[in-house]
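Entry for the shared binder. Reason: the reviewer on the internal report wants the predicted structure included alongside the sequence.
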Amino acid sequence: MSILLYIGGGVALILFGVRFLRKGLDRILGTRLAQWLTKLAENRFRAFATGLGLAMLAPSSTTMSVLAVQTVQAGQLNYRRMLAVVFGADVGLTMMVLLISLRVDEFAPWLALVGVVMFQFTRRTKTRGFGQIILALAFIFMGIGIIKGAAAGIDPEGDLIQIIRILERHGLLLAVLAVGLAVGLQSVTAAIGLVIGLGAAEVITLETAVMVVIGANVGVGFTTLMVGWSRIESRRLALGNLIAKSATAIIWLACAPWIASGLEALPGTVEMRVAYAHIAFNLTLAILCLPFLGLILRLAEHLAPQPDDVAEAFGPRYIKLGSIDNPSLALGQARREVLRVSEMVRGMLADLWQALKSDDARLARQAAIRDDQVDQLDRAIKKFLCHFDWDEENVGEQARLLRYSSELETIGDLLDKNVSELVLKKIRLNLTFSQKGWKELEEFKDMVTENMVIAETALATGDRDLAGQLVRNKRRVDEIARELRDNHFERLKQGQTEARETSSIHLDLITYLRHINAHVSHVAFAIAQSNDENGDAPTQTSAV
């Protein structure tokens, strides 16, 4: 029992090391992983090479699975191109297993010492990130060392060995158990790391190790399917990946004895031969499946057909607690959800203006439903963003997203409670704006709408020039609001009947549009204030 506890402790240390490694990579690369992915994956072969390179930078199967699913769900890359990226990532991820196989566990204490010094006693984010990676590697190597040491103490005549020998006679069952192991650990690196440790202690044969390698790779396919099941595009991606892995696994299961014999003939240690098996499996998958990418995806589309137009329960589209634990990826998804809310709010303004123009009371009353939806998404965004432990590099972006989501929620309330009531009042009293007054209102509304688009773009890109333009536009909108009031008062002095009858509605519309513009403009201050090159940062003004 103590030996099993030691082996379990070694696996736990590997799992923690893999997770810690992902956090370190996040400190160094931030949100750039997803950005590089979108820019580089132009065709299937370039996408394959992109996945290969990204997996070497971020050697974690869970990270790559979540990155693939979230990128597809965010609409940044279609699932057809992403599957080629996943094939490349599968090959790139084998480099971590090869590193584990090089018997470097005796150097783990030295790595731990260097890692602790860099992570614990430095301040720069990137230096701490490198320290975290080194420390994570130390944990992984320590875990392998613990497994090796514990496995060496297993009684050759004991029950555990007898169970292993029985399983070795049932290769398919062994592969199925390996699938469950990889799904449970959510890491192919941890599953194969366990095999390397047992193989080094000569507890299992190389043919047994090959069976586990096959099952562990298929298990990662099931993990991706679970992560991506919620959306049709990511479900098809995951099914295509699982089909490719399963087809490769069937070929390998049929040829397992010959594959094991071929690996035995290769130079190197048992651990290195296990790593070679992992590399060879994923190279086989890429060689066999990349040319037939279209066929695989057509089969995936057949298994996951596009659902009929069914009323879907309203809710967050890009964020979901528990579906992602990488802060940088979480920021990207939260940004997509906030931009979705911004588009909804802009649509509310457009619809209310159409209702004002056409005297459509039904369209005006729909603002209440849209506002409830905006409130629902705002609560979900806040809950999602406050779920993570942000480091100093990402906390500023978190604050920007939280702030802009709150501003949008306020604009939604303003449109529902105020502008909608003005529209209904105009319809109820059967009022008509003067021709010049209506033209001025239309132009003013268009200016505010344009600023909403600029704010969305500034939030999405972090563009400092756009942020500065938004700040300047806010001042211009305030000036025009005063001019429009003066123009209206001039028409009242001239005794225009239409101007007199619509006076309160006209002036209130100017006020509310100005407030909307002020709330929208607040997205610029967090970008422009901290990055003003001349030190002349703009001063935030009140929304009122």
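Summary line for the report: The radius of gyration is 30 Å.
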